[in-house]
Each structure stands twice: as C-alpha cells, then as structure tokens.
Amino acid sequence: MLLVVTLGVSILCASHASATDLVGSVRVIDGDTIDVGTARVRLHGLDAPEQGQHCGAGGSGHWACGAWVTENLRQMVDGRMARCVELDRDRYDRIVARCFVDGEDVGEQMVSRGFAVAFTRYSMDYTMHETAAREAGLGLHAVAFDPPAQYRKRSAQKATKSAQKECVIKGNISRNGAERIYHMPGQRDYKATRINLSKGERCFDTAEDARLAGWRPAKR
Fold first, then answer.
1. DSSP 189
2. How far apart are CA 111 and CA 119, in angstroms?
3. What is the reported pTM?
4. How large is the C-alpha radius of gyration of the chain?
5. How far is it, in rounded angstroms, from Cα 83 to Cα 88?
6. CB atoms within 10 A of CB 70
C-alpha cells in the first residue's frame, strides 16, 4: 500500500514539474528576451545591452553592441526548439525562465561568451561565467561598455531632464501613489515639481488632456 501511495505521489510531482515547462520554437526579440511559441520569456539571470545601446571608448562609442548581441543570440537559438523552466514573472508580466536548447543553458552560454552580464540584482547563477569571460576578454569584455542597468538608468535620467525642459503642464503622482495631480504654470508648486517618467508621471499640453487622463488639478 505504501509503495502504491509513494508511486502515486512521484507521478503527481513529475506531472506538476513538466506542467511548468514551456516548449516551443524560439523567436529572438532582443539580447535577453525571446518568444517560445506564443509565450514572451525574459531569460533568467542575465542582463544584455539594450537594443539601441552603443559601446566603445568610455562606454559611449559608436559600436551598436545591443544589436550585435541580439544578432548573436539569434544565430544561437532563433527557429530552434527550446525548453524553458518558469521561475518568476517580471513587472512587464513576462515569464522569467531558464531556457535550454539542445540541452545547453542559453543564459549560461550568453554570459560565458561575453554577450551579456550576470544580473546579480536577481540571481548569482552566472557570476563565475561572467568573471571567466571578462578575464578572457570575450565579447563585450573586449571593449569599454556600460553595464545595461547603468545604461538604462542614464537614459531614464536624460529623458526625465528633457521632459522637465519641455513640460508645460506637470502631471505628478503622490508619494503613496494614490493621487494624480497636475500643476499649471504660475501655481505655487509648479517650479518645484519634478516629473519622473519612470514612475508614470507625465506632461500635458492642456488641462483638458490632463483631466481626461485621470489627473486632478492642484488646489493652488
């Protein structure tokens, strides 16, 4: 009786484990994002240059490293069958997964070849692979480049500064996220209000635009 129960539990566990796997043909989106069948997957444990990112001297050269990394991933896996193990969901509702093609861990291969860095904010799985690639001067490590997270931060700061200059009506979100308030030129807090695009704050051309978008006017 015990053997039957144990066997039954084992079968259920195996069934559950396989149910979480994604299997399908790969379509490469960028250096760390792929489609597996109809599912959008963010590769676990690595961070690749953004599609429009450039690398080179001082980390800001003219080599389109983001597009280069995407092309290398495309040559590795595009159109091939992958099996992915779902680990999480990110803020864009993409599946975060470890993916395998012909038994090879795609994330490990990307970091080992210097096409991406270990995303240590979320995982330490590929740190040794990054160290080995950096010491060997492979891929991105052969030139100066900004880590993708640093590049994204700088790009967001530039976009925010540009928005501050061009902003007419400032759509601000309260610290607790409960209120969306727009400030008109001449109002008390207008000059002191700063727009953070990464938080969902924005600019409007007219007060009517702000109201239609769900913002209320500042009281003074």
1. T
2. 10
3. 0.66
4. 23
5. 15
6. 23
CA separation, residue 210 to residues 9, 51, 178, 180, 189 (Å): 57, 32, 16, 9, 17
61 CB-side CA count, 13 A: 13
**pLDDT value at residue 4:** 38
Q: How far apart are CA 133 and CA 153, in angstroms?
A: 24
**Nearest in space to 110 (alpha carbons), one of 75, 135, 58, 150:** 75
Helix %, strand %, coil % of the chain (to 5): 40, 25, 35
- What is the CA 152 to chain-centroid distance, rounded? 10
Read off the DSSP letter of residue 55. B
Report H helices in 35-187. Answer: 65-77, 106-112, 127-136, 148-166
Q: Are strands 95-101 and 39-43 parallel, antiparallel or unpaired?
A: parallel
Residues 38-70 pLDDT 10s? 999 999 999 999 988 999 865 456 789 999 999
**Chain segment 99-121, per-residue pLDDT in tens:** 999 999 999 999 999 999 999 99
